């Protein structure tokens, strides 16, 4: 029974909870048992909040028994990336400099999750301060891909993606600065969505790059992502970049798409996001998916976004520049780690010692790069020029969306690589985000869903839509998911190897 509960989609589990077929306590305990059984091998979680989750579940069950009208997802367990602050639960952002820190407040999206009655199973592993493409830069050890424990689960949100792929949680929250929801989704066979910038509150996210960061859902189905997206999205006066408009009807769009009919939808294939550097099997699955969309009635057109080739370079100037500013607060003076030198412990030396021990190599690398790019005499040449490229990329999107309703590409150029394979080559690591970064620079929404296997490993298909048109992602994504599952005879994750349990 408990194994069956962990295999259900969030929507199916919600239906069983609402019907009284199962209690939230039973569902939550089933997932906690699954975490206890397999997370020793996967290491998706940094902190498991069993008592708190079961208390929430018991409260939901009591309220449901009394006849109270509850949110559609009430009682469905969820995991939260450890870059999102949670009152009373440790929040480390994957860094030693915040080890043991317990926030005094909740992020807005966490408040909404708690108000809706979703038990929070715990906090998931991540690259330190979300800086990485493999979750190998966590200060607390690697997360492993459930499809092959010797491979990366993507990054920076590998913990959330691995938890969902390993059936440890039906839902999770990730954050996406350059692809950190979508790229882990691609390599773990899960669905990941980066909402329109400003449509989900960033209040309570530990910032890396404020103009790029965006929280979003990590799930096993497109409908589940729509349900979670509608829950956490919407205007927040505590976030100055929050869009003061309601979300479009996401769940309705997903249900419409699930019929498999895309008649009249124009799908633009981005010429620059395929070809050299892309694994042959990734491209093969991509073109097979295009054939399915065409058969569903979609019109397939090719579009060109000529400035996308400069996106990676622009991103790796803008992101480190903003990160160097945002991480200045971690100084050993106010909260988190403090390292006091034995001799002459001045404020400056305490800061230097704290940062030296508290930050990992990748964080230091990006702080140095960002500080240099912002320094006197170099600002216009580097950061200023990168922002001009960002404008050109936004114009490329505008031109492409004049020709198509959505744009598509492979989510990542390769399947999951071996742990340690690219640690000594940061530039090779950065290339994993080549297809996802443009959306962050332009603020447009993106969705990744699994569209097959290459040599036994998942491949991802990316759908991009204009800003504030997130519903288009869900219509096209759900349609492709329906068509693919007809071919596979069920979800792709059903083909994943079973993990050994303790």
State the distance separating the first and last CA atoms: 18 Å
What class would the helix/strand composition place it in?
alpha/beta
Helix share, percent: 40-55%
Q: What oligomeric state do the depicted chains represent? A: single chain
- Walk across the major sheet and give the strand order: 1-3-2-4-6-5-10-11-9-7-8
* Average pLDDT for all residues: 96
| Shape call | globular
CA-based gyration radius: 21 Å
Proportion of residues in extended strands:
5-15%
Report the sheet with the most strands, covering strand number, pairing sense and barrel closure: 11 strands, mixed
Instruction: Spell the H/E element sequence.
Output: HHHEHEHEHEHEEHHEHEHHHHEHHEEH
Spans of at least 5 consecutive residues with low confidence: none
Output the number of helix runs.
17
Number of strands: 11
